[in-house]
Amino acid sequence: MKTFSALFASALLALPAAFAIGGVASADTYVRGYTRSNGTRVQGHYRSSPNSTVTDNWSYSGNTNPYTGERGSRSYSSY
Predict the structure, then answer these.
(1) Residue 61, domain extent
(2) Which terminus of the chain has a lower count of CB atoms within 10 Å, N or C?
(3) What own/partner pairs with CB < 8 Å and gap ≥ 24 does 65-68 have?
(4) How far apart are the C-alpha atoms of 62 and 41, rounded to whole Å?
(5) Strands 45-48 and 28-31
(6) Each residue of 1-47: pLDDT tens digit?
(7) Is the pTM of this model over 0.85?
(8) Total number of domains in the chain
(9) Which string of DSSP letters, residue by residue, matches 21-62?
């Protein structure tokens, strides 16, 4: 019985940690569709999460957008 209690307690502590790590590791954000002021409709899409570096942005050379398969073409020197 002690073994089951110890296992349950460790699982109870490990689950929130796993969710916290998974949330941080996520690198994409969904942008909802919207209509621009000139009437153009922009379809909803995924983009990489904002941060302080361009090395993980899908539009930069060496990276590939996992949703479209499109390879990045922008260079880091233009940043």
Answers:
(1) 2-78
(2) N
(3) 66/28, 67/28
(4) 30
(5) antiparallel
(6) 556 565 555 555 555 554 444 444 556 889 999 999 999 999 999 88
(7) no
(8) 1
(9) HHHHH--EEEE--EE-TTS-EE--EEEEPP-S-STT-TTBTT
